[in-house]
Design a protein that fits this description.
17 strands, four-stranded antiparallel beta sheet, 2 helices, Immunoglobulin-like, 251 residues, alpha+beta
Length: 251
């Protein structure tokens, strides 16, 4: 017995699923399509939007339709927030699905800049800190990995601008962007920073051999130099000392 049949056996229609295309992080004035997937045979589908007074969009199925598209055009600050789907089947409303967080970027026109803080030891695969500089006093800083942020859950949110990221392996590349926001409405973000690409050059085997050869030569030179100094000191101690001069008597 699958999950849907089990839930229906208890009188609970299964949860619908929800997603957004091209993603849940949308720039101002862009269009987005929100999709709801339901079991076949539903009679009505609602897309709810949590705002101060609540808002919903209706969709009536055609035949055995299971996927429903709700087009949202020209997304603005009033379109950001929590979305979720519900449907009716057999006279019962379904459970609420996992909620979709829709973020609108570019609401605040200040553009952050993203830089690498190498620290006193320089850039390496062990110590990588990214700094999100903003011309405005934002309360939340967001760091997203990848060329485009698609889900706010995949981004790091914190109250300070320094992000310590996981090590970058040699030969790999990562791209990051950062945003600014406020605690009062965390679904409204600033403009995106320019993308920052991190990469550590991969050292080839020939370079490893060259480095090891140089180290070996330097070690031999140091050993020979120390040996010469010790031999010179030993010889100077072995040389016979000349007769000491007798002190002259004053007349």
């Amino acid at each position: 017995m699958d999950l849907e049949a089990a839930l229906l056996g208890f009188g609970l229609p299964p949860q619908p699923s929800i997603w957004a295309v091209p993603g849940a992080v949308i720039s101002t004035d862009s269009d987005v399509s929100i999709f709801c997937r339901t079991p076949p045979g539903v009679t009505r589908v609602h897309l709810y939007y949590d705002e101060p007074y609540g808002k919903w969009f209706d969709h009536t199925p055609e035949g055995a339709q299971e996927v429903f598209e709700f087009c949202q055009q020209d997304m603005t600050h009033i379109s950001a927030g929590i979305y979720y789907c519900e449907y009716t089947k057999g006279g019962q409303w379904s459970q609420t699905n996992d909620k979709l967080q829709m973020v609108v970027t570019g609401v605040y026109k200040e553009k952050p800049s993203l830089t690498v803080d190498t620290g006193p030891q320089g850039f390496s695969e062990r110590n990588v800190t990214l700094l999100c500089h903003t011309p405005h006093s934002f309360e939340i800083f967001i760091l997203c990995r990848g060329g485009n942020a698609s889900l706010p859950q995949n981004c790091s949110h914190q109250s300070h601008s320094a992000f310590l990221i996981s090590p970058v392996s040699p030969g790999n590349r990562r791209t990051y962007r950062c945003f600014g926001s406020y605690k009062s409405n965390s679904y409204l973000w600033s403009l995106s920073s320019d993308p920052l690409e991190l990469s550590i050059p991969e050292t080839s085997p020939s370079n490893y051999r060259l480095v090891n050869s140089v180290r070996l030569i330097m070690a031999v030179i140091i050993v020979l130099t120390l040996g010469a100094l010790l031999l010179d000191a030993w010889k100077s101690r072995r040389e016979p000392m000349g007769p000491s001069e007798s002190p002259k008597m004053s007349t």
